[in-house]
Amino acid sequence: MQVNTDEKAIDEVLERGTIVQVLPTKEAFKERLMSGEQLRFYIGFDATAPTLHLSHAKNLMLLEKFRKLGHEVIVLFGDFTARIGDPSGEDSARKQLTREDVMENVKIWKELIEPLMEFNGSDNPPLIKYNNDWLSKLNFEDVISLASNLTVQQMLERDMFEKRIQEGKPIHLHEFLYPLMQGYDSVAMDVDAEVCGTDQIFNALTGRTLLRKLKNKDKFVVAVTLMENPKTGDLMSKSKGTGIFLDVSAPDMYGQIMSQPDEMVEILFVNVTSLSLKEISELMKMDNLRDLKMRLAFEIVKIFHGEDKTKTAQQAFVDQFQNKSIPDNLVEKTGTTGLELLDVLVETGLVSSKSEARRKMDEGAVKLDEEKITDHKYQLEFGDKEEKILKLGRKIVKLCR
Q1: Residues 33, 173 within the same domain
Q2: Residue 245 in domain
Q3: The domain containing residue 312 runs over which residues?
Q4: In b/e form, how buried is each residue of 153-182, taking b as 16+ CB within 10 angstroms?
Q5: 79 and 120 inside one domain
Q6: Residue range 265-292: mean pLDDT, rounded
Q7: List of residues 6+ apart from 321 with CB closer than 8 A
Q8: What's the number of domains the chain is made of?
Q9: Is 49 exposed, middle or buried (0-12, 13-18, 19+ CB in 10 A)?
Q10: Residue 241 domain-assigned?
Q11: pLDDT, tens digit, 9 for 90 and up, residues 158-195
Q12: Which is nearest to 219 in space by CA: 237, 231, 207?
Protein backbone atom coordinates (compact mmCIF):
# COMPACT_ATOMS: atom_id res chain seq x y z
CA MET A 1 0.00 0.00 0.00
CA GLN A 2 1.35 3.41 -0.97
CA VAL A 3 1.71 5.92 1.86
CA ASN A 4 -0.80 8.77 1.63
CA THR A 5 0.96 12.11 2.20
CA ASP A 6 -2.05 14.33 1.50
CA GLU A 7 -1.94 17.06 4.16
CA LYS A 8 -5.71 17.36 4.40
CA ALA A 9 -6.10 13.61 5.07
CA ILE A 10 -3.34 13.70 7.70
CA ASP A 11 -4.80 16.79 9.40
CA GLU A 12 -8.21 15.07 9.58
CA VAL A 13 -6.58 12.42 11.78
CA LEU A 14 -4.34 14.70 13.83
CA GLU A 15 -6.85 17.47 14.52
CA ARG A 16 -10.00 15.41 15.14
CA GLY A 17 -9.66 15.65 18.92
CA THR A 18 -8.82 12.03 19.77
CA ILE A 19 -5.10 12.81 19.99
CA VAL A 20 -4.28 15.07 22.93
CA GLN A 21 -0.48 15.03 22.83
CA VAL A 22 2.39 13.80 20.65
CA LEU A 23 5.91 13.44 22.01
CA PRO A 24 8.36 14.84 21.22
CA THR A 25 6.13 17.22 19.17
CA LYS A 26 3.08 17.03 16.93
CA GLU A 27 4.89 19.13 14.32
CA ALA A 28 7.73 16.58 14.03
CA PHE A 29 5.19 13.76 13.87
CA LYS A 30 3.25 15.43 11.05
CA GLU A 31 6.50 16.01 9.16
CA ARG A 32 7.28 12.27 9.31
CA LEU A 33 3.75 11.38 8.20
CA MET A 34 4.14 13.64 5.17
CA SER A 35 7.59 12.31 4.28
CA GLY A 36 6.26 9.29 2.39
CA GLU A 37 8.09 6.87 4.70
CA GLN A 38 6.03 3.93 5.94
CA LEU A 39 6.00 4.05 9.76
CA ARG A 40 5.36 1.15 12.12
CA PHE A 41 2.66 1.91 14.70
CA TYR A 42 1.52 -0.21 17.58
CA ILE A 43 -0.98 -0.20 20.39
CA GLY A 44 -0.84 -2.64 23.30
CA PHE A 45 -3.59 -4.12 25.44
CA ASP A 46 -3.25 -6.22 28.58
CA ALA A 47 -6.06 -8.76 28.53
CA THR A 48 -6.87 -8.44 32.25
CA ALA A 49 -10.65 -8.80 31.81
CA PRO A 50 -12.86 -10.69 29.35
CA THR A 51 -14.27 -7.64 27.61
CA LEU A 52 -13.48 -4.25 26.06
CA HIS A 53 -15.36 -0.95 26.02
CA LEU A 54 -15.77 1.97 23.64
CA SER A 55 -12.68 3.76 24.94
CA HIS A 56 -10.60 0.80 23.69
CA ALA A 57 -12.55 0.81 20.43
CA LYS A 58 -11.71 4.42 19.65
CA ASN A 59 -7.97 3.68 20.00
CA LEU A 60 -8.22 0.87 17.46
CA MET A 61 -10.26 3.09 15.14
CA LEU A 62 -7.44 5.65 15.28
CA LEU A 63 -4.86 2.95 14.54
CA GLU A 64 -6.95 1.89 11.55
CA LYS A 65 -6.82 5.46 10.22
CA PHE A 66 -3.01 5.33 10.27
CA ARG A 67 -3.18 1.98 8.46
CA LYS A 68 -5.42 3.46 5.79
CA LEU A 69 -2.82 6.19 5.32
CA GLY A 70 -0.50 3.36 4.29
CA HIS A 71 1.41 2.68 7.50
CA GLU A 72 2.09 -0.67 9.16
CA VAL A 73 0.06 -1.20 12.33
CA ILE A 74 0.37 -3.78 15.10
CA VAL A 75 -2.18 -4.77 17.74
CA LEU A 76 -0.13 -6.17 20.60
CA PHE A 77 -1.76 -8.41 23.17
CA GLY A 78 0.17 -8.24 26.43
CA ASP A 79 -0.17 -11.90 27.29
CA PHE A 80 3.02 -11.62 29.38
CA THR A 81 2.63 -8.11 30.86
CA ALA A 82 -0.98 -8.83 31.85
CA ARG A 83 0.39 -11.39 34.30
CA ILE A 84 2.61 -8.77 35.94
CA GLY A 85 -0.09 -6.14 36.37
CA ASP A 86 0.15 -2.53 35.22
CA PRO A 87 0.24 -0.19 38.25
CA SER A 88 -1.06 2.77 36.18
CA GLY A 89 -3.84 4.52 38.07
CA GLU A 90 -3.89 1.92 40.82
CA ASP A 91 -3.56 2.60 44.55
CA SER A 92 -2.69 -1.05 45.20
CA ALA A 93 -1.09 -3.92 43.30
CA ARG A 94 -3.26 -5.57 40.66
CA LYS A 95 -4.23 -9.21 41.02
CA GLN A 96 -1.83 -11.37 39.02
CA LEU A 97 -3.39 -13.65 36.41
CA THR A 98 -2.39 -17.03 35.01
CA ARG A 99 -1.47 -17.38 31.33
CA GLU A 100 -4.63 -19.47 30.87
CA ASP A 101 -6.75 -16.60 32.24
CA VAL A 102 -5.09 -14.12 29.92
CA MET A 103 -5.33 -16.25 26.77
CA GLU A 104 -9.02 -16.91 27.37
CA ASN A 105 -9.53 -13.14 27.49
CA VAL A 106 -7.42 -12.66 24.35
CA LYS A 107 -9.61 -15.13 22.48
CA ILE A 108 -12.67 -13.03 23.30
CA TRP A 109 -10.93 -9.74 22.50
CA LYS A 110 -9.91 -10.87 19.01
CA GLU A 111 -13.57 -11.42 18.18
CA LEU A 112 -14.61 -8.08 19.66
CA ILE A 113 -12.15 -5.98 17.65
CA GLU A 114 -12.79 -7.62 14.27
CA PRO A 115 -15.41 -5.00 13.22
CA LEU A 116 -12.94 -2.17 13.87
CA MET A 117 -10.07 -3.07 11.53
CA GLU A 118 -9.68 -4.83 8.18
CA PHE A 119 -7.80 -7.89 9.44
CA ASN A 120 -8.73 -9.94 6.38
CA GLY A 121 -7.68 -7.39 3.79
CA SER A 122 -4.92 -8.47 1.43
CA ASP A 123 -3.44 -4.95 1.20
CA ASN A 124 -1.41 -4.08 4.33
CA PRO A 125 -3.64 -5.82 6.94
CA PRO A 126 -3.13 -5.11 10.66
CA LEU A 127 -0.74 -7.48 12.44
CA ILE A 128 -1.42 -9.20 15.77
CA LYS A 129 1.49 -9.94 18.07
CA TYR A 130 1.95 -11.28 21.62
CA ASN A 131 4.67 -10.02 23.95
CA ASN A 132 5.07 -13.40 25.59
CA ASP A 133 6.96 -14.31 22.39
CA TRP A 134 9.94 -12.19 23.46
CA LEU A 135 9.51 -11.37 27.14
CA SER A 136 9.33 -15.02 28.17
CA LYS A 137 12.72 -15.58 26.51
CA LEU A 138 14.58 -12.99 28.59
CA ASN A 139 16.83 -14.49 31.26
CA PHE A 140 17.79 -12.84 34.54
CA GLU A 141 20.93 -11.38 33.03
CA ASP A 142 18.84 -9.78 30.26
CA VAL A 143 16.44 -8.24 32.77
CA ILE A 144 19.30 -6.79 34.83
CA SER A 145 20.83 -5.35 31.67
CA LEU A 146 17.52 -3.72 30.71
CA ALA A 147 16.99 -2.39 34.24
CA SER A 148 20.38 -0.65 34.11
CA ASN A 149 18.87 1.83 31.63
CA LEU A 150 16.45 3.23 34.23
CA THR A 151 16.78 4.64 37.74
CA VAL A 152 14.74 4.19 40.91
CA GLN A 153 14.22 7.94 40.94
CA GLN A 154 12.58 7.75 37.50
CA MET A 155 10.18 5.09 38.73
CA LEU A 156 9.28 7.03 41.86
CA GLU A 157 8.22 9.98 39.71
CA ARG A 158 5.06 8.06 38.80
CA ASP A 159 2.03 9.67 40.43
CA MET A 160 0.56 6.43 41.75
CA PHE A 161 3.84 5.45 43.44
CA GLU A 162 4.19 8.87 45.07
CA LYS A 163 0.62 8.58 46.33
CA ARG A 164 1.21 5.13 47.80
CA ILE A 165 4.35 6.28 49.59
CA GLN A 166 2.46 9.21 51.11
CA GLU A 167 -0.34 6.87 52.22
CA GLY A 168 2.07 4.26 53.58
CA LYS A 169 0.92 1.63 51.04
CA PRO A 170 3.36 -0.95 49.64
CA ILE A 171 4.98 -0.77 46.21
CA HIS A 172 5.91 -4.24 45.02
CA LEU A 173 9.15 -4.79 43.13
CA HIS A 174 7.40 -6.49 40.22
CA GLU A 175 5.42 -3.25 39.65
CA PHE A 176 8.71 -1.45 39.00
CA LEU A 177 9.43 -4.06 36.35
CA TYR A 178 6.18 -3.47 34.46
CA PRO A 179 7.26 -0.27 32.61
CA LEU A 180 10.52 -2.01 31.77
CA MET A 181 8.69 -4.94 30.17
CA GLN A 182 6.22 -2.75 28.29
CA GLY A 183 9.07 -0.51 27.18
CA TYR A 184 10.93 -3.49 25.78
CA ASP A 185 7.96 -4.20 23.49
CA SER A 186 8.99 -1.14 21.43
CA VAL A 187 12.51 -2.52 21.09
CA ALA A 188 11.38 -6.03 20.17
CA MET A 189 9.02 -4.77 17.46
CA ASP A 190 11.32 -1.93 16.33
CA VAL A 191 8.41 0.53 16.15
CA ASP A 192 8.30 4.15 15.03
CA ALA A 193 5.22 5.20 17.01
CA GLU A 194 3.08 3.99 19.91
CA VAL A 195 -0.58 4.90 20.41
CA CYS A 196 -1.57 4.95 24.09
CA GLY A 197 -3.95 6.51 26.58
CA THR A 198 -2.73 9.44 28.64
CA ASP A 199 -2.49 7.08 31.62
CA GLN A 200 0.17 5.09 29.74
CA ILE A 201 2.53 7.95 28.81
CA PHE A 202 5.10 6.97 31.46
CA ASN A 203 5.25 3.39 30.15
CA ALA A 204 5.43 4.58 26.54
CA LEU A 205 8.26 6.98 27.36
CA THR A 206 10.12 4.12 29.02
CA GLY A 207 9.94 2.36 25.65
CA ARG A 208 11.21 5.50 23.97
CA THR A 209 14.19 5.57 26.36
CA LEU A 210 15.04 1.90 25.76
CA LEU A 211 14.66 2.20 21.98
CA ARG A 212 16.97 5.18 21.91
CA LYS A 213 19.61 3.54 24.14
CA LEU A 214 19.50 0.06 22.61
CA LYS A 215 18.89 0.87 18.93
CA ASN A 216 19.74 4.56 18.67
CA LYS A 217 16.22 5.12 17.31
CA ASP A 218 13.54 7.58 18.34
CA LYS A 219 9.85 6.81 18.77
CA PHE A 220 6.77 9.00 18.70
CA VAL A 221 4.33 8.66 21.61
CA VAL A 222 0.80 9.43 20.40
CA ALA A 223 -1.31 9.96 23.54
CA VAL A 224 -5.08 9.81 23.14
CA THR A 225 -8.09 10.79 25.22
CA LEU A 226 -9.55 8.52 27.90
CA MET A 227 -13.09 9.77 27.11
CA GLU A 228 -13.78 10.91 30.65
CA ASN A 229 -17.01 12.59 31.59
CA PRO A 230 -16.17 16.33 31.68
CA LYS A 231 -18.49 16.90 34.65
CA THR A 232 -17.72 13.93 36.89
CA GLY A 233 -14.31 12.78 35.65
CA ASP A 234 -15.63 9.21 35.43
CA LEU A 235 -13.77 6.90 33.04
CA MET A 236 -14.72 3.73 31.21
CA SER A 237 -12.89 0.90 32.96
CA LYS A 238 -12.73 -2.81 32.17
CA SER A 239 -11.34 -3.60 35.63
CA LYS A 240 -14.22 -1.75 37.34
CA GLY A 241 -16.87 -2.95 34.87
CA THR A 242 -17.99 0.59 33.98
CA GLY A 243 -18.69 1.89 30.49
CA ILE A 244 -20.31 0.83 27.22
CA PHE A 245 -18.96 -2.64 26.52
CA LEU A 246 -18.49 -4.37 23.19
CA ASP A 247 -19.75 -7.84 24.11
CA VAL A 248 -23.42 -6.87 24.38
CA SER A 249 -26.32 -7.29 21.97
CA ALA A 250 -27.38 -4.54 19.59
CA PRO A 251 -30.46 -3.56 21.70
CA ASP A 252 -28.39 -3.42 24.88
CA MET A 253 -25.63 -1.35 23.30
CA TYR A 254 -28.22 0.98 21.80
CA GLY A 255 -29.89 1.42 25.18
CA GLN A 256 -26.57 1.97 26.97
CA ILE A 257 -25.63 4.74 24.56
CA MET A 258 -29.06 6.38 24.89
CA SER A 259 -28.59 6.43 28.67
CA GLN A 260 -25.25 8.26 28.48
CA PRO A 261 -25.10 11.71 30.12
CA ASP A 262 -25.79 14.59 27.74
CA GLU A 263 -22.24 15.91 28.09
CA MET A 264 -20.85 12.67 26.60
CA VAL A 265 -22.70 12.96 23.27
CA GLU A 266 -20.18 15.07 21.36
CA ILE A 267 -17.25 13.17 22.90
CA LEU A 268 -18.67 9.87 21.63
CA PHE A 269 -19.45 11.33 18.19
CA VAL A 270 -15.86 12.51 17.79
CA ASN A 271 -14.13 9.44 19.17
CA VAL A 272 -16.30 6.47 18.18
CA THR A 273 -18.00 7.31 14.88
CA SER A 274 -16.71 7.70 11.34
CA LEU A 275 -18.63 10.93 10.74
CA SER A 276 -16.54 13.93 9.69
CA LEU A 277 -16.01 16.81 12.10
CA LYS A 278 -18.13 18.97 9.79
CA GLU A 279 -21.04 16.49 9.99
CA ILE A 280 -20.70 16.27 13.77
CA SER A 281 -20.67 20.06 14.07
CA GLU A 282 -23.93 20.28 12.11
CA LEU A 283 -25.55 17.52 14.18
CA MET A 284 -24.62 19.23 17.45
CA LYS A 285 -26.84 22.15 16.40
CA MET A 286 -29.94 19.94 16.70
CA ASP A 287 -32.48 21.14 19.28
CA ASN A 288 -33.89 17.68 20.00
CA LEU A 289 -31.33 15.93 22.23
CA ARG A 290 -33.21 12.63 22.07
CA ASP A 291 -32.97 12.52 18.28
CA LEU A 292 -29.29 13.50 18.49
CA LYS A 293 -28.61 10.59 20.85
CA MET A 294 -30.53 8.24 18.58
CA ARG A 295 -28.29 9.22 15.66
CA LEU A 296 -25.25 8.67 17.90
CA ALA A 297 -26.48 5.25 19.02
CA PHE A 298 -27.23 4.24 15.42
CA GLU A 299 -23.77 5.26 14.16
CA ILE A 300 -21.95 3.34 16.92
CA VAL A 301 -24.09 0.20 17.09
CA LYS A 302 -23.94 -0.38 13.32
CA ILE A 303 -20.12 -0.59 13.53
CA PHE A 304 -20.38 -3.66 15.75
CA HIS A 305 -23.68 -5.24 14.71
CA GLY A 306 -24.38 -4.09 11.16
CA GLU A 307 -27.13 -1.85 9.85
CA ASP A 308 -30.00 -4.38 9.88
CA LYS A 309 -29.62 -5.33 13.56
CA THR A 310 -29.14 -1.68 14.45
CA LYS A 311 -32.40 -0.70 12.71
CA THR A 312 -34.19 -3.45 14.64
CA ALA A 313 -32.65 -2.27 17.92
CA GLN A 314 -33.65 1.31 17.18
CA GLN A 315 -37.23 0.34 16.38
CA ALA A 316 -37.47 -1.69 19.59
CA PHE A 317 -36.24 1.34 21.52
CA VAL A 318 -38.81 3.58 19.83
CA ASP A 319 -41.63 1.10 20.52
CA GLN A 320 -40.66 0.62 24.13
CA PHE A 321 -39.73 4.12 25.25
CA GLN A 322 -41.18 6.60 22.76
CA ASN A 323 -44.43 4.94 21.75
CA LYS A 324 -44.76 3.59 25.30
CA SER A 325 -45.91 0.19 24.07
CA ILE A 326 -45.79 -2.58 26.66
CA PRO A 327 -43.16 -5.09 25.64
CA ASP A 328 -43.95 -8.75 25.79
CA ASN A 329 -40.91 -9.39 27.96
CA LEU A 330 -42.08 -12.38 29.96
CA VAL A 331 -40.55 -15.49 28.37
CA GLU A 332 -40.94 -19.03 29.70
CA LYS A 333 -37.96 -21.38 29.70
CA THR A 334 -37.30 -24.81 31.17
CA GLY A 335 -34.68 -24.91 33.93
CA THR A 336 -33.16 -27.77 35.87
CA THR A 337 -31.65 -27.97 39.34
CA GLY A 338 -27.85 -27.76 39.24
CA LEU A 339 -27.71 -25.65 36.07
CA GLU A 340 -25.34 -22.69 36.46
CA LEU A 341 -27.04 -19.31 36.32
CA LEU A 342 -24.31 -18.01 33.98
CA ASP A 343 -25.42 -20.58 31.39
CA VAL A 344 -29.08 -19.74 31.96
CA LEU A 345 -28.50 -16.03 31.36
CA VAL A 346 -26.81 -16.76 28.02
CA GLU A 347 -29.23 -19.47 26.87
CA THR A 348 -32.29 -17.32 27.59
CA GLY A 349 -30.82 -14.40 25.66
CA LEU A 350 -30.73 -12.05 28.64
CA VAL A 351 -27.04 -11.53 27.87
CA SER A 352 -24.90 -12.27 24.84
CA SER A 353 -21.92 -13.82 26.65
CA LYS A 354 -20.75 -15.21 29.97
CA SER A 355 -18.44 -12.22 30.42
CA GLU A 356 -21.44 -9.90 30.17
CA ALA A 357 -23.31 -12.15 32.62
CA ARG A 358 -20.46 -11.91 35.14
CA ARG A 359 -20.37 -8.15 34.80
CA LYS A 360 -24.14 -7.83 35.27
CA MET A 361 -23.88 -9.99 38.38
CA ASP A 362 -21.10 -7.78 39.73
CA GLU A 363 -23.29 -4.74 39.11
CA GLY A 364 -26.14 -6.34 41.10
CA ALA A 365 -28.40 -6.31 38.04
CA VAL A 366 -29.31 -10.04 38.10
CA LYS A 367 -32.23 -11.03 40.31
CA LEU A 368 -33.73 -14.46 40.94
CA ASP A 369 -37.07 -14.24 42.72
CA GLU A 370 -36.14 -10.63 43.61
CA GLU A 371 -32.86 -11.72 45.25
CA LYS A 372 -29.67 -10.23 43.79
CA ILE A 373 -27.30 -12.95 42.61
CA THR A 374 -23.60 -11.98 42.52
CA ASP A 375 -22.02 -15.46 42.79
CA HIS A 376 -20.61 -16.39 39.37
CA LYS A 377 -20.93 -20.11 40.26
CA TYR A 378 -24.54 -19.93 41.47
CA GLN A 379 -26.61 -22.97 40.49
CA LEU A 380 -30.38 -23.24 40.16
CA GLU A 381 -32.18 -24.98 43.01
CA PHE A 382 -35.94 -25.38 42.65
CA GLY A 383 -36.71 -27.30 45.85
CA ASP A 384 -40.49 -27.43 46.28
CA LYS A 385 -41.04 -24.55 43.87
CA GLU A 386 -42.22 -25.23 40.34
CA GLU A 387 -40.95 -21.97 38.87
CA LYS A 388 -38.57 -19.07 39.40
CA ILE A 389 -38.55 -15.54 38.02
CA LEU A 390 -35.22 -14.37 36.59
CA LYS A 391 -34.83 -10.63 35.97
CA LEU A 392 -32.19 -8.50 34.28
CA GLY A 393 -33.35 -4.91 34.09
CA ARG A 394 -36.64 -4.87 32.18
CA LYS A 395 -36.07 -8.37 30.86
CA ILE A 396 -37.93 -11.17 32.62
CA VAL A 397 -37.76 -14.93 32.19
CA LYS A 398 -39.94 -17.46 33.99
CA LEU A 399 -37.97 -20.65 34.63
CA CYS A 400 -40.14 -23.75 34.93
CA ARG A 401 -38.72 -27.08 36.02
Answers
A1: yes
A2: no
A3: 250-322
A4: eebeebebbeebeeeeeebeeebbbbbbbb
A5: yes
A6: 93
A7: none
A8: 3
A9: buried
A10: no
A11: 777 878 888 888 888 888 888 899 999 999 999 999 99
A12: 207
